[in-house]
Here is the input.
Amino acid sequence: MKWIRERDALIAQTLAFVQSVTGKRDDFHPPETPTAAPDVPEGATVTVETVAVETFTVEIKPQQVVPHAPPVMIPPARTSGDFRSEMQARIASFRKHQERFEREREEYCAATLTRLRAAIRDPSLRPPAEN
Here is the structure.
């Protein structure tokens, strides 16, 4: 159960960090062994590893005070009429694009059918039949 050991080590490191920041000490000690023994078939060899938890202290320096930058100018909130007109303009633009695509598809289809019909009528354009 490697993940349990990793979890316990992470908890211990986190608590050490919190204690170094706040100066408080807790009586928390991570469990040495898992609370429930894993199911192991009889006669199997089990290896138990001990994990040493390394503690460390971190010195936190106060941040330097940076003079305040001028506030970013936020554009005024849009009025409902402005939003509505912008949406109507976007919808109209979208419709124009869709109409153009549909027109181009129709033109391509008509041109393709014209070439196909011409090829059917004109036997010289057909490839020779294999016998």
About this structure: The mean pLDDT is 77. The two ends are 75 Å apart (CA to CA).
